[in-house]
Design a protein that fits this description.
alpha/beta; disordered N terminus
Length: about 250
């Protein structure tokens, strides 16, 4: 369970997409755009869709565009509270408290499931993937994303959030910065083993986002151009594990 206040959790998620830092903004917006494109690419309308871990709720309106029945499930009350606000503008949205590692949601009940940046917060990601497969309807689609364990961003975060150093990071960025809460970072190899063990099949995979300390913080848009060039060179190479996020389109 998170120790941060509701305001900190939601405000952080909203800030990521409007950051004054070009690299921080790009890292999160490019991930968001990939997810949105792939949600919208799923043939609809769908009977029932689910987001596990809705965060600040940014994807819920997108899911509502492909189905009239959208469920937001989370174990964190902070995020459920934010999702409940959106029920005023999304009539088919319902919010439930559920632990995906021991889910009480009905088997085979969702035609599309979105689980982005969630399993790195769960110790037992094997159980989470099994839970996701259980509730995914036959022929349905699971969109999954999570950081890569040895990406420079995740490695640097271990240092950046140390006591004392985090205050310097906040001075540099001048916007909300809190600990990531990542307790289960997975390599591509480990995650693929878990995906297969859960009985899920990979239909598509992708990687994005490259970060280098100091370049990201102090070189502005010129630094971003360099990082984007590096991303293109790394994707598909033996060093693709340095990219920040791994994405999968899964079925069962």
């Amino acid at each position: 369970m998170s120790t941060h206040t509701d305001w900190e959790l939601v405000d952080l998620q909203e800030t990521l997409y409007t950051s004054r830092n070009p690299t921080r903004r790009w890292l999160h917006c490019s991930r968001r755009d990939w997810i949105v494109d792939h949600v919208q690419a799923v043939a609809g309308p769908l009977p029932r869709v689910l987001e596990v871990g809705p965060g600040a709720g940014g994807y819920l309106p997108v899911l509502a565009g492909v189905s009239s029945e959208v469920v937001a499930a989370d174990i964190e009350e902070a995020y459920l509270s934010q999702a409940r606000i959106l029920t005023e503008s999304i009539p088919g949205l319902t919010c439930v408290k559920d632990d995906i590692t021991a889910t009480a949601l009905r088997t085979d009940s969702f035609n599309l499931i979105l689980c982005t940046e969630v399993i790195e917060h769960i110790v037992d990601s094997d159980a989470a993937l099994c839970g996701l497969r259980k509730i995914l309807a036959p022929g349905g689609t699971l969109i999954l994303s999570t950081p890569q364990r040895y990406s420079p961003l995740e490695l640097c975060a271990k240092i950046a959030f140390l006591p004392g150093i985090i205050h310097l990071v906040r001075l540099v960025y001048r916007e909300p910065i809190i600990e990531t809460g990542h307790i289960n970072l997975l390599t591509e190899k480990t995650l693929k083993v878990q995906i297969e063990a859960a009985g899920l099949q990979i239909q598509e995979e992708y990687k994005s986002g490259f970060y280098l300390p100091l370049i990201a913080e102090f070189f502005g848009n010129k630094g971003l151009v360099l990082l984007q060039w590096c991303e293109k060179k790394l994707r598909g190479s033996r060093l693709s594990g340095l990219l920040w996020t791994q994405y999968y389109i899964l079925t069962k």
